[in-house]
Amino acid sequence: MIDGSANASEIASKISSGKISARAAIDTMLARIASINPKVNAFTDVTAERARQTADALDARRARGEALGPLAGVPFAVKNLIDIAGLPTRAGSKINRDLPPAKRDAMLVRRLEAAGAILVGALNMGEYAYDFTGENIHDGPSRNPHALDHMTGGSSGGSGAAIAAGLVPLALGSDTNGSIRVPAAFCGCLGLKPTYGRLSRAGSFPFVSSLDHLGPLARSVGDLALAYDAMQGPDPDDPVATTRAPEPTLLELERGIGDLRIGIAGGYFARHGDPDCFAAVAKAARALGATRAIELPEAGRARAAAYVITAAEGAALHLDRLRGRAADFDPAVRDRLIAGSAIPASWVIKAQRLRRWYRERVLELFDQIDVILGPTTPCRAPKIGETTFVLDGVTMPVRPNIGIFTQPISFIGLPVVAAPVWIDEGLPLGVQVIAAPWKEAHGLRVAHILEQSGIAQARVASL
After folding, report:
1. What does the mean pLDDT of the chain come to?
2. Residues paired with residue 204 on neighbouring β-strands, in sequence order
3. Prediction pTM value
């Protein structure tokens, strides 16, 4: 039998070998969801009947002697901005619930199921992904499994909670400015934000098209690699995901550090945070033998430019909804979108110019370094409902400032593995393992070394 701590690779191995049936694994996980989800509020929809039918079909294939995929029988769930056939794609909103149900699954759902995984439901999120807290006024907040009165982070808060609570070993989230990496840090699990354009976004509700990424969260680096490899491939339905052939990463994990050059983000990334988040980076750096400081030029300005582009593009997407149904928005989201609609075009042009300049300067750094370590968030998970935290002696609003270290990275589409680090018995912290474009394997290799050394260990909460 399996329990909530079982990883995807363990489940797939047991099902493929016949030690357990896919139906038994799914029934066990559905029972766990029914028992624990009311505490953490990770799921908004549970697709139990679909999951059982898929599991029965998988067991029938195994009985016929057919080969099963690398994710055979692995339960997974997806952020509810990702299409699931038969369900409206709510994107954390009240308004989208009035949409017709999706006619087919998103591309990444289909690719995971082609590899044998079994969908068990849709996950809670911040409204329209414009959120770093995991608090949703329509569905209630996701709760951090390690401390139920604390935030999961957002906007993929349900994804982080589901992994940390042991409700699924694999989840999908989206990341525009940090929405995979922040929940991974706050909930003590692993997340992968791939290179912009690496994984198809077809069948997902957008937020900021020029910044949006989809990616997996899991409790082991091997599971991240398994899922990532299953989802790779061009897709004509996503105009930015049409050119790259799959580049498998799972076997790359065993190469270790090899000749990888590892640096530590300094300057902007060594300020503006609680000392504990820098202690987590230092702990990871010591385990890797990394000592070289690397400074990303004008990272603070890059974050400001990311805010301008996010607000302007997001507002343009939602303008009709703001005009017709403003009262149905979360007021915090609505007001930010309205403000974005007033941004002058000249500001957006300047922000895009800075984006091009910044990308060129950062890519130059990868001529001398392969991977850069930096903090994921400026603090541990605040309590649900807290609206401010103290940063460098200054009281700052929570929602716009949790992504202070993630925004300058996604702004130029770099791949990042978010790894959890515990430095004491308190809540986890996170380290970003940042690589050059299309070099996800480098980030996964380094995260795997940290995992094997005991530094980046995901934990299932006791609930």
Report:
1. 96
2. 82
3. 0.97
209 is catalytic: no
Annotation says 179 is catalytic: yes
- Write out the residue range of the structural domain in which residue 78 sits: 8-304+341-452
> Would you give the DSSP letter of residue 118?
E
Q: What is the chain's length?
A: 463
Q: What is the DSSP letter of 190?
A: E
- Find tokens 């911040």 and name the residue: 126
Residue 79 catalytic?
A: yes
| Tens of pLDDT, residues 382-439 | 999 999 988 878 898 999 999 999 999 999 999 999 999 999 999 999 999 999 999 9
Task: Give me the DSSP letters along 223-286.
Answer: HHHHHHHHH-S--TTSTTSSSPPP---GGGGGG-STT--EEEE-GGGGSSS-HHHHHHHHHHHH
Give the pair of three-digit tokens for residue 188.
């003590």
State the catalytic residue, choosing from 9, 93, 179, 200: 179
pLDDT tens, position by position, 81-96: 999 999 999 999 999 9
Catalytic residue (choose from 14, 16, 79, 439): 79
Q: Is the pLDDT of residue 448 over 80?
A: yes
> Residue 102: beta bridge partners?
85
The answer to whether residue 377 sits within a structural domain is yes
Query: Does residue 327 lie in a domain region?
Result: no
CATH code of residue 349: 3.90.1300.10
Q: Is 19 exposed, middle or buried (0-12, 13-18, 19+ CB in 10 A)?
A: exposed
- Average pLDDT value for residue range 160-187: 98
3 state SS of 18: coil
Closest C-alpha among 313, 264, 268, 321 to residue 291? 264
Residue 220 exposed, middle or buried by CB count within 10 Å (0-12, 13-18, 19+): buried
Instruction: Give the active site residue among 21, 142, 155, 410.
Output: 155
Flag whether 313 is in a domain: no
